[in-house]
Description:
Chain A: This is CID domain-containing protein. Chain A has 310 residues and is mainly α.
Amino acid sequence: MDSFETSSQFRQILRTLLPQSPVVLKAVHFALRNCSSEDYLYYSIIDILDDVSVELNTKTTIFQFIDVLIRESFFISQQVNSAYNYPYVHNLKTALPKMMEKLLPQTNNVNLHCIYTNLKNISETLNVNYSDLNRQYKDLNSILSAEDIENVALNIPFPQVSFENISLESKDPVIQAWEILLHKRKESHYERLRLLKNLPPRDGVLTEDDMFAIRNPRTAELHKKNNDQLFTKKQIVARMEDERESQKRSRESLWVVSRPSGSSFVTEEEFLNYYWKRIGEITPDQKDDFMAALDDLNTLAKLSYKDNQF
Amino acid sequence: MPESKRPLSVPPVPQPNGTKAKDVPTIVQVSRPFMTHAELSHLHTLTIASNKKTTYNQQKHQIFQFLFQVSKSIKLPLRVLSLAMNYYQRYYLYYVFEDHGNNPTNDPLVEAENDSFLVATTCLFLASKNEDCIKKLKDVQAVCNRIRDLDGESRNFLKGGVSSSIPLADFQRKVIMNLEFKLLQVIKFDFTSGAGNVPSVDQLVVIFAKQLKLSYKLTFFAWLISFDIMSTPLLLTLPPHCIALAILIVTLNLQPTDIEAKYADEFSESAAIGATLDSIDSMKDFRCPETLVNEGIVYVLDYYIHQMNFLVLNEYMPPVNAEIGKAQIFKFMDLKSKFNDLSILSEQSVSTNALLKQDKYLRKWDTGVCVKGAARFIIGNKRRRFDAEYAILRPQ
């Protein structure tokens, strides 16, 4: 397969990318296998993110793919006798601020949380200190200035600034990406406060169609021209499904029990790691709830036996 | 106990004018998570033919091994395994084991419901959902079939000739869905599994042990017992906290010093062995009614006296106890003799066969009754809400 063929196949993979982790991982492995064509494949990623016809949902998934790609690239390059030399890492890292622009379109903040999660992972992999930025992202009380709050009260829309004009303080592309994200976070919070303050709440019954009618049909055409990516009902539902799926997967880490192979019965390792080390004494503030639950159980047991047992 | 609070089933009542009463279910089923041994064995005589008792018990052992292997492969925690084994035993309280006569049309789908491995798969699947460790049925099936060495080829599983060839997994899925509905009926749709917000036995043992400040070795010993006990019908008889406390009392009495624990040295054992037996106030500290704890103690000791050689605890103990110079089992027997006069569960209401037969709750479950909304399933402590309905059905 020559580089051209590889890249067209890769584009096809990216266009149909789904957020299920096996699918993403397969795409990542394809990219790593063909990292000799990195120059082609890297531009395929950038082109797809630039492409207006690609849905925003897919672009979000592609960012998830980038997250995994960087992590896997590190992983295979750090193996002993590895033939890999951190493929894609440098290119993707440099392009992060530009990607933000595509992933977080103007006037639309649906992606904020997904991008935040992935950017956190990327910063972790690249060993960038982002704790301060993370704190700023989380701290909603200090994100708006006094002037902003005044403007919210006056119902003034958040000033639209194109990304080139956001003053970036850092030279590091990862930190720059964080700064753009923080800017969008601020906008999102500002607009929400403005909405709560200035728009009267709607009473009465709201049909499902009304609820999803965020794309006003009259202005839809106009929006299209402005390349403004608002979701349709179908896209919103698809996104909900995807997120439910990834939520379920992330929950697995809460309960998975790894047992040493070979033994056909329970092992001391399981006891040590999942019971002895994890379970502590009941603290005084847990005690009331715990005792109440046991009392409930006793009532249940009492009713379950026919004879009066206790 | 007042009559109105006792969980029981109400037989269909003839409806004279049929208009108003039509809307209420004709059968009320209250979930009874715990039953006495007499009730359990009475139900077994109805569902397990006397010539199949040995087969049932041998197969149960095999099935529980199988469930453990599957749980290991899917990395499910023990609480799911425990609940699955509980469900499996409950299923055969109300449905006939190897019921080949009840399939006049020879439908392969009905016949396959006799496959106890599929029953076990269903139990594990429902337990994993109930314990919030959700796995797709497809994944569970794949692991089960791999462990059973079944290939997934398409064959004529269904009635109707060559054209109805479907993959094994699809066929199994249909059976499992049917079995799940049957299972839900006998657990009376009770998703608290009789435990509400209380953790499972294996966790409770460790929680209580930490509270009593037990050493690593003693806690490990108790935890191993909890694993052995998990597969017994004791979980259908006693609530988990009473079992956990019973196990700890047995542990403290035995004071095992010779358990083989690789990691015990990492934890500095304090000189004191922890709480002494006298200081345990079962009701005040652990909310465990004494009768139920006693029942648990006696059961645990009996179980080890009869089964010690087949249990996991045996793997972690030297065959001969150095202290008494005899096999480990004698320590259990010694202790049992000290506990001979404990007051245990009363079985007054079920002491004779006639009394057992009177109780309509203790019958084979007929899946026909719950079609078309004819049955209402409720949890024992929630039944007050339906008292009005109950009054209509049973005019005084």
